[in-house]
Every structure is written in structure tokens, then in C-alpha cells.
Backbone:
């Protein structure tokens, strides 16, 4: 792995350098405690009874036999729920335990708590549920037709977003070339290494404490409080060290926490529930599959005039985050280009498939694949090279986006595109590749892609976060926030920002896991918002603390406050005091402040800059700022077997200001690799609402052997809104890998593949892999 | 292994005696068996007869021109055996692409055969090497050619109380190859594989034996293609005809790993590539 160029900003001491992850040693030495590692004395084991059909009316649930099995302590159905039976951040209709009907194969109709997992499993098999099967809706377009079978009470439209700009008809009239294309992307699993796990313990106050593999603690707490009929202050959710999430441990964990909580309250005992991989695959939400239609119009010389798109997302059985995911798709549907006339319609439809929700990229990887493929197809039609067409149309400083937002910051799209193409000599190489001999079996190809991405939640909703900074009397610091470390490096990043500001070394800072009862509700840890939001909140907390401790330091050093320098665990006033360079250790200062009764505890709160959105025309300042990225992929295609080898990736991103350099590179490598899996391998296939893959023996992810060399160039472009200039990186790195690969395959073979993933069979025959015979190897436990 | 009940014999006789009892199952590397057990987790499991302690069954022995492998020889040991590299190149190639390093360190040749999968990577090479299996039980020993061992996917002639105790074949000083296609580079089950053994004499191909993996209920030979190729000069026309013939001999199905049409097509491609000396593209 190569880091090509990196302009380190010497303005900062810590920020911008490479700091080892603060949680690395715990993780590699086995000291880290993941949710499944938690146990309580006298705990019971919870197990779920899944729906036998993807769509059916529940006629009767008989738990009698199960309840009589020795060792069983509770068998619960929807009738035993003290609060509401459903939850959901956007639309509260997701069933903790199903009552009238089941809507997908991961729905749960009953739960058991028993003295051992084995007994719990036996009890599940003794539960008799009578169903009346209903017709299954498995295609989102069919779901939206008149007369379609309804999944919920009202029609199957889960969400609809539109963007209207200019006059689309005039746009096409002005176009010399019009192209219409269809693309589709597959449904994929987050594939976090740790399946979901919780330990729910009934509390002394009639409340409940749940320790689990949770990503978004506060939305989960709202779900648990709602279903258990408790006030928020009686539900305490504690985050265990997370073994990956990628957006995946939100509603899935709400459901699991609700179920474990119900069993714990019913039995008065701690209840542990750990999903097997099969259960996780069956039940947990996925990345939406999209069916995308584009119509693009351009002048002969390649100036884009109009883009019209119609996009269908499979929301599956429940809304979850679909309304927000598809909104992001709508905003970004026309890619990072200036387009005067835009008409975008994005629909999310309910089906009886596994429900879909947040996953790294959040509605953008699908769009990026389609629009970046489309731009290459248009370039081909116009006889331009892909770079030339992009450079003619990309967003620049002060450009207006498809939603009518003027970009007031420095737009670095050209720079990232230059970074990935210049060294490779993209245009020459791309042209050479086109002239490869027809009869050679192995052909090389290169392809590019680029994107812009609105950071944080944007006009999705309220966007604010808090960080608590508590200086101890020995000068060490405890940090806590409602935003979490989930493997992305937040603990290290936020620690580094505090370290920079207070002049203490990162090893003096301890970042605590989140706890809903002890840290401020900071919204979800999503949308690449953590560095930005928590970073800004931390800066405010630091500022507040410095205002309080500076007078004490100035008094000790007998110098004016403005001469103080906090650095390397001490404070001094270089060349300004009568005592020369006398340094006071930060620990001494902290202790002195404490003796004087000065508060060493601060809560920094940050609310994002405003955004606007008009539902009527899809116009507004959708996000307060954007990041830019570009990829180049080089592939070798075996034209005889359809085997595509990814040989090299060059990735360039503008994350504003790097906070942790090694963390930033990790995000790029991880993002590219996840994108390669999306492009080449992954497909959570379903047939008539039934999942066709159950585990990683058949749902294949890339292994280390499939990873190419990844060369990264990070741009230094501090954003005036970001903490010390930082923006975001985690998602952009992932969203533009697939189109670069598909474009490279075209460059090699002249064959355009518009559907993911690019398996050997797809590349060779244009056909998709589907399980036809019944599964031979593994059956889901509890299923 | 702690959660399973095990018996750990140290001699072959002891092992065979134990296997003659009820509700027991031999285990070698466990890379297939433990996955099967996971399916029936919580249900009653047989006692495992751990073969690891049977030292002689780990050996690779050479006697004159014959090589015999103990069933506990691992894929890694095959991959790294200088002897086998010369004497059974297709077997070494197959051993080196299967699974991952970790799996190859555990998985054994005996287990790969006894598991009876049509996509078992070592099986097509053993077909073209005309391997003989020695099966032992308390009742004695019998010998059986490998192509008589398999009855269907996962079904073999091995009796419940029998062990494969040796796999032997003549050293080949001829040409051989094993090529396969899989979804990713490592930890992937073959979509289709082709193994061959043949001699080149004065520009013509003789003694040709070809076996196909994952395109029929068991590994199969391709007798019509073999017959056609025998005595031919390897030119483009001959290769194309051979590829066409072998596609007719394959009987593939469509499943999650591949599509019948693709498999059939690729059998021909891999045969051509193997005979042309084009290495595995992975």
C-alpha cells in the first residue's frame, strides 16, 4: 500500500500525524470485551421463533408445549408486550414480536428464555404457529402497481423523493445526444465480523440495563422504552466493544434489545441473546438493491444538458432508514456534475424481502455505480475519453448542485481526478487498452469514477452532538460522548483533537464506551458525521476548560494568558516569563485548579450549520458541506472465463484536514475493499421472499488474496466548518469502487456490464448466480 | 474439539476395532466434518475417533515406481513434497489451490476422498493417476480403484467400519495439469475443474487420461475425449474438437456456485488451456 503525497500541515502538533489506535492493544491481545463476552450470574438464554413464511396471516400461536419444557422460564408473544408492539425511528411499525401477520422470513413471532441455549432451542421447536399464507411481493416495481398485495395497511410506497431543476424537456431538446440506460445493484450484507449480541439485566428500579453490540444507542433506547413501556431514564443501553457495524447495528439491535428486555423483565433474570451468523444473515437489514433508469442528454461537445432518472429501491418488510437512504440517493442522483435540467424520482417500496437500511454509503454506492457507468457510456457515445467528459462537467467552486445549492467552499473534484489519472497517464493508457488485439484472452483495462458526498445528516433532521471532557487531578482526561467507536477509529480521532487542544499526549486520554444514562444523546453514529460533529463538540468543551484553567496557569507562571502554550503535557510561556522557560506539568495545573474549586468538567455541545429542503421541488441546501473523491481501477479480464482480476487501485480523497493519518488510510483501504466485494462478489439473493444464502460459505466476501495494491492520495483542504478543518472520509472511500471496476472492464473488453456483481458467469454469459436446489450444508439455528 | 466426545486410538488395529462399534465416526482434519456437525448442533452426535495418533498413516512412501500416501497426509504436505512435484504434478497443483493455508494445513487427502464431494479438488488428479485405495476394517483389507469408490455426491462404497488406509499410484514421469475456476482466489469451492495426465511422443499425445470435477454427481473421466486425443498432434483444430467433445461429456447442473452452461463451456476451456500449458490465472 502506497501513500503518494500528503501535505502535512505543520500548524498542528498531533492532528495530521499517524497515531496508533487507542483501542488496538486491547483488540489484538484479547482484552477487549465484546457483547457476547458479558455474562451475569443466573443468566438465562433467549431464543427467537422465526416466521415460517415470508408473508402470512398469524391465526394462532400455541406456546403451551414449549412453556412446559423443563428449564424454560418464559415463552412470550406479542400479547405479553407491556408497551407498544412496534418501533422505528422514522415509521414506528417494525414489530418486536409479530401480532397479526409476518412480513419477511426474519420476522419473530415468539421468544423463549431458558436455562440453556439447547433447552431454548428445543422450546422454539415446540411452539406451534398456525399461518394462512399470503401472496409474496418480491419486486419493488410490482409492489407499487395498483392492486398489489399490501405488506402494511396502506399502499406499498415506503418513501418517495423528487428533485426538479430547470426544465427537463427543454434540456433534452437542447441535447444532440440522448442516452437511456438501465442499471441494477444487488442487496448486500454488512458482514460485520461480530454477529449481534446482548445481555439484558433487570434493574433495581424496575428498569433495565442492556449491554450490547449497539451502534445507535439512543434510537435503540427509544425502541426499548417504547416496547417495554418504560421511561427513557429507566432504560440504560451500554455499548460493548463493537466488532464492526458499517451502519448495520441499529434496527436489528433495537429488535434484539427489545426481545431480551421483554424476557428479562418477565423472568426477573438477566437474559443473554447471541445471534448465530445464520440468524444474523436471515434477520438483519441489508443494503438496498436498486433498479435504476437514467436518461441523459448532452451537446455534441459533451456539455451535459439534462438528466432524468427513475430509481426503485427495495425497502423490504419495514421502513427502517429507507426514507433517509433514498433521500440521499435523490440528492446525489446526478453525480458530481453541473446539470441545468434535472428530474429525479426515487421510490422505496415495501416487499416481503429482508428489510433494508443504513449501510456504509447510505444510498450512494448504488447511485455512484449507475451514474459513473452512465457518464462513461455517454463519453463512448460522444467519442470522448471518460476523463475529458468528466472535466467538462464536474462541479467547481461556486457551482450550483442539482438541488440548487451553491458550493461556497473549495471544490476539489478536479484535483482528486488529476491525482488518480496523472501519474498513470490515464488517457493514453485508456486509448491503448482500447486497441488491444481481439484474439488475446487476457486484456487489461483502466477505469475511473468520482463523487461528491454531503457530509453528516443534512436536511434529514436535527444534527447535534455533545462531548464530555473531564480532566482528572493527575492531568489525565476522560472523554465520553454519545457518538461511538465502532471500529472506524472515532476513539482515536476525538482523543487526538482533544490532545491537540489541551496540549496533552493521546496516551493521557481515555475514551469511554457510550452509555445512554451517562452520555448526552448525540444522535446516531452514522453519515460520516462523527469526526465532524463530535470533533466540533470536543473543541467547544476544550475551549470552555481552557477558559477556566488558563487564569490559574497565568498566575502560576506570572504571565498574561495569551502567552500560554499548552504542549506535551505541560504549560509554559516561551520567553515571556521572568522564570525563562519554566514548564508547569499539566498534572500540577489540574491539581491546582481542583484545589481552587475550579470545575474540570465540561460538556461541549455542537449543532450543525443550517440546511434547507423543499419537499415540493427537491431544492435546497441539502448538506452544509461536501467531500470529493476519485478512484482509478486497473483490471485484467480473462475474456474466455470471465474472470476479472483487480490489479491496482488509485484513490484520492479530500477529507478536509486529516486527523489521524493511519486511520484515514485505513478508511480508504477498507472502503476500497468493501467496494470490491460489492463490485465483484456479493449478492444476498432471495427468491419469493426466502433468502438463498445463509452463511459465508456461499455469501462470498473478498479475502486478502483478492486485494490489489491500493495507492492513496489525500488532499489537504481544511473546511471552515470542520473541527480544525476536518470533514469526512469513511463512506466516500467505499462508494466509488464498483463503477471504477465496471468502467475498467469496459475499457478492457468493450463490454458494458450494468448489473452487479461482476461474477465470472455475469462477465462471460451475462447471467446471475441463483441457488436452485435446496441448500445442502447449513440450516439456520432456531429457524 | 473439547465439546465433542472423542476416542484417541494410537494403532490402526485399535482404531479399526473402535470403528467396528456403534455410533462412532472417524475424523482426520475435520475441515468438512466439523462443518457438517455444526448443522446438527445440539442434536446427538457420534463419538469421534480421532485418527491423528496413527503415525504411519501420515507418511508419504515411495517403493520403486510406486508412491503411496497415508490418508492423513495433508494438502500442505502434498503441496510441499518435492517427490510429488515430480511424480504427480496435477495432485500438487490441486492441493495448492484448495481452501486457504489454514485449511490446507488441516485437510487430508483421505478426508477429501471420503467426503465424496464432486468438487473435491484432489479427486480428479487421483483419477488420472489411476490411484488405488486400500480400505481396511476389522474384517480385513480390500483394494479398489478410485473411479469405483464414488456412487454419488457424498456417497461412497466405504463401509461404516472401514478406513481408507492408503492411496497409491505409479509415479508419472509424464505431463499433467490441474486447472480450476472459482469465485475468488482463496477459500472457494471449485465451480469446475479439469485434471489430466498424458505423454508426448514425437509430437503426438498418448496415454491421455482426463478427469472432470464439479460437472457431474461424481468426478468423472472423459473417455471419448481421451480416445479422440490419443495419437493426435496437438494443433488448434485438434484442441477445438477435443474441447467440443469434452463439453458433451460433462453433465453439469446450475447452483449457487455456477451455471450449467458456464460449467460446460469452461470444461473445454480448461482442457485447452491445460494442454497448451497456460497456467492457472489465479
Residues:
Amino acid at each position: 500500500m502506497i501513500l503518494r503525497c500528503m501535505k502535512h500541515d505543520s500548524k498542528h502538533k498531533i492532528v495530521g500525524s499517524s497515531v496508533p489506535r487507542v483501542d488496538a492493544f486491547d483488540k489484538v491481545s484479547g482484552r477487549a470485551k465484546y457483547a457476547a463476552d458479558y455474562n451475569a450470574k443466573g443468566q438465562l438464554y433467549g431464543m427467537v421463533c422465526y416466521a415460517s413464511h415470508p408473508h402470512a396471516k398469524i391465526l394462532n400461536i400455541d406456546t403451551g408445549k414449549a412453556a412446559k419444557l423443563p428449564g424454560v422460564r418464559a415463552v412470550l408473544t406479542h400479547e405479553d408486550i407491556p408497551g407498544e408492539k412496534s418501533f422505528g425511528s422514522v415509521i414506528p411499525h417494525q414489530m418486536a414480536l409479530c401480532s397479526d401477520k409476518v412480513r419477511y422470513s426474519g420476522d419473530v413471532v415468539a421468544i423463549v428464555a431458558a436455562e440453556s441455549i439447547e433447552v431454548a432451542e428445543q422450546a422454539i421447536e415446540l411452539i406451534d404457529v398456525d399461518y394462512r399464507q399470503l401472496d409474496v411481493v418480491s419486486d419493488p416495481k410490482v409492489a407499487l402497481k395498483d392492486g398489489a398485495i399490501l405488506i402494511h395497511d396502506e399502499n406499498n410506497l415506503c418513501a418517495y423523493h423528487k428533485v426538479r431543476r430547470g426544465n427537463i424537456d427543454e434540456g433534452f431538446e437542447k441535447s444532440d445526444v440522448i442516452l437511456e440506460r438501465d442499471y441494477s445493484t444487488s442487496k448486500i450484507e454488512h458482514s460485520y465480523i461480530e454477529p449481534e449480541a446482548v445481555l439484558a439485566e433487570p434493574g433495581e428500579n424496575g428498569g433495565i440495563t442492556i449491554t450490547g453490540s449497539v451502534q445507535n444507542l439512543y434510537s435503540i433506547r427509544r425502541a426499548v422504552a417504547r416496547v417495554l413501556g418504560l421511561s427513557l431514564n429507566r432504560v440504560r443501553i451500554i455499548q460493548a466493544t463493537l466488532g464492526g457495524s458499517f451502519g448495520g447495528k441499529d434496527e436489528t439491535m433495537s429488535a434484539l434489545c427489545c426481545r431480551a428486555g421483554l424476557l428479562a423483565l418477565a423472568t426477573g433474570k438477566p437474559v443473554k441473546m447471541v445471534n448465530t451468523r445464520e440468524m444474523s444473515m436471515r434477520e438483519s437489514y441489508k443494503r438496498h438493491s436498486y433498479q435504476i433508469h437514467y436518461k441523459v442528454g448532452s451537446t455534441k461537445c459533451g456539455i451535459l444538458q439534462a438528466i432524468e432518472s427513475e430509481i426503485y429501491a427495495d425497502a423490504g418488510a419495514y421502513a427502517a432508514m429507507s426514507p433517509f437512504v433514498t433521500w440521499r440517493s435523490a440528492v446525489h442522483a446526478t453525480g458530481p456534475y453541473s446539470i441545468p435540467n434535472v428530474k429525479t424520482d426515487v421510490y422505496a417500496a415495501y416487499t416481503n424481502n429482508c428489510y433494508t437500511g443504513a449501510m456504509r454509503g447510505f444510498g450512494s454506492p448504488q447511485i455512484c455505480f449507475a451514474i459513473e457507468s452512465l457518464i462513461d457510456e455517454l463519453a463512448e457515445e460522444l467519442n470522448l475519453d471518460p476523463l475529458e467528459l468528466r472535466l467538462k462537467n464536474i462541479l467547481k467552486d461556486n457551482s450550483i448542485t442539482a438541488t440548487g445549492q451553491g458550493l461556497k467552499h473549495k471544490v476539489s473534484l478536479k484535483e482528486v481526478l488529476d491525482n488518480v489519472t496523472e501519474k498513470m497517464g490515464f488517457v493514453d493508457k485508456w486509448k491503448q487498452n482500447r486497441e488491444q488485439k481481439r484474439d488475446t484472452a487476457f486484456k487489461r483495462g483502466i477505469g475511473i469514477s468520482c463523487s461528491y458526498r454531503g457530509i453528516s445528516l443534512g436536511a434529514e433532521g436535527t444534527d447535534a452532538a455533545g462531548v464530555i471532557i473531564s480532566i482528572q487531578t493527575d492531568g489525565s482526561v476522560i472523554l465520553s460522548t454519545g457518538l461511538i467507536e465502532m471500529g472506524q477509529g472515532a476513539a482515536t480521532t476525538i482523543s487526538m483533537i482533544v490532545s491537540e487542544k489541551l496540549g496533552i499526549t493521546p496516551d493521557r486520554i481515555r475514551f469511554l464506551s457510550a452509555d445512554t444514562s451517562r452520555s448526552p444523546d448525540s444522535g446516531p453514529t452514522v453519515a460520516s458525521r462523527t469526526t465532524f460533529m463530535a470533533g466540533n463538540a470536543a473543541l467547544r468543551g476544550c475551549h470552555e476548560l481552557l477558559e477556566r484553567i488558563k487564569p490559574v496557569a497565568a498566575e502560576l507562571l506570572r504571565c498574561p494568558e495569551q502567552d500560554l502554550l499548552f504542549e506535551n503535557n505541560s504549560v509554559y510561556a516561551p520567553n515571556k516569563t521572568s522564570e525563562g522557560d519554566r514548564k508547569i506539568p499539566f498534572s500540577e495545573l489540574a491539581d491546582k485548579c481542583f484545589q481552587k474549586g475550579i470545575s474540570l468538567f465540561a460538556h461541549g455541545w455542537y449543532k450543525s450549520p443550517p440546511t434547507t429542503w423543499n419537499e415540493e421541488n427537491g431544492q435546497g441546501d441539502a448538506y452544509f458541506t461536501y467531500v470529493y473523491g476519485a478512484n482509478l481501477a486497473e483490471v485484467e479480464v480473462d475474456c474466455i472465463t470471465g474472470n476479472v482480476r483487480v490489479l491496482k487501485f488509485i484513490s484520492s480523497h479530500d477529507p478536509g484536514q486529516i486527523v489521524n493519518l493511519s486511520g484515514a488510510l485505513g478508511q480508504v483501504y477498507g472502503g476500497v475493499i468493501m467496494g470490491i466485494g460489492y463490485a465483484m462478489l456479493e449478492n444476498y439473493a432471495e427468491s419469493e421472499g426466502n433468502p438463498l444464502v445463509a452463511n459465508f460459505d456461499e455469501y462470498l466476501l473478498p479475502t486478502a488474496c483478492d486485494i490489489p495494491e491500493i495507492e492513496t492520495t489525500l488532499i489537504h483542504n481544511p473546511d471552515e466548518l470542520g473541527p480544525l478543518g476536518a470533514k469526512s472520509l469513511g463512506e466516500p472511500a467505499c462508494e466509488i469502487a464498483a463503477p471504477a471496476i465496471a468502467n475498467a472492464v469496459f475499457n478492457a473488453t468493450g463490454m458494458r456490464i450494468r448489473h452487479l456483481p461482476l461474477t465470472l458467469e455475469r462477465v462471460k454469459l451475462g447471467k446471475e448466480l441463483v441457488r436452485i436446489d435446496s441448500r445442502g450444508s447449513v440450516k439456520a439455528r432456531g429457524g | 474439539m473439547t465439546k465433542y466426545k472423542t476416542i484417541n486410538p494410537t494403532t490402526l488395529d485399535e482404531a479399526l476395532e473402535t470403528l467396528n462399534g456403534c455410533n462412532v465416526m472417524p475424523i482426520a482434519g475435520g475441515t468438512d466434518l466439523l462443518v457438517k456437525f455444526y448443522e446438527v448442533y445440539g442434536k446427538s452426535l457420534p463419538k469421534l475417533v480421532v485418527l491423528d495418533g496413527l503415525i504411519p498413516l501420515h507418511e508419504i512412501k515411495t517403493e520403486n515406481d510406486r508412491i503411496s500416501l497415508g490418508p492423513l497426509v495433508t494438502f500442505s504436505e502434498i503441496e510441499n513434497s518435492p517427490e510429488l512435484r515430480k511424480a504427480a504434478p496435477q495432485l500438487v497443483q490441486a492441493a495448492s489451490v484448495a481452501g486457504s493455508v489454514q485449511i490446507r494445513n488441516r485437510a487430508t487427502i483421505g478426508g477429501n476422498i471420503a467426503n465424496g464431494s464432486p468438487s473435491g479438488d484432489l479427486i480428479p488428479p487421483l483419477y488420472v493417476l489411476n490411484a488405488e485405495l486400500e480400505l481396511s476394517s476389522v474384517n480385513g483389507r480390500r483394494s479398489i480403484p478410485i473411479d469405483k469408490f464414488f456412487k454419488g455426491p457424498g456417497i461412497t462404497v466405504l463401509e461404516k467400519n472401514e478406513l481408507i488406509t492408503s492411496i497409491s499410484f505409479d509415479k508419472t514421469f509424464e505431463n499433467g495439469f490441474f486447472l480450476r475456476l472459482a469465485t475468488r482466489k482463496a477459500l472457494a469451492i471449485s465451480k469446475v475443474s479439469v485434471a489430466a495426465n498424458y505423454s508426448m511422443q514425437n509430437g503426438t499425445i498418448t496415454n491421455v487420461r482426463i478427469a472432470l470435477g464439479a460437472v457431474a454427481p461424481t468426478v468423472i473421466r472423459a473417455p471419448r475425449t481421451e480416445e479422440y486425443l490419443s495419437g493426435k498432434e496437438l494443433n488448434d483444430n485438434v484442441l477445438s474438437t477435443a474441447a467440443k467433445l469434452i463439453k458433451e461429456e460433462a453433465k453439469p447442473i446450475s447452483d449457487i456456485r455456477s451455471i450449467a452452461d458456464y460449467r460446460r463451456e469452461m470444461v473445454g476451456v480448461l482442457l485447452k488451456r491445460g494442454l497448451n500449458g497456460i497456467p492457472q490465472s489465479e
The first strand of chain B starts at residue 6 and ends at 7. Chain B is about 30% helix and 25% strand.
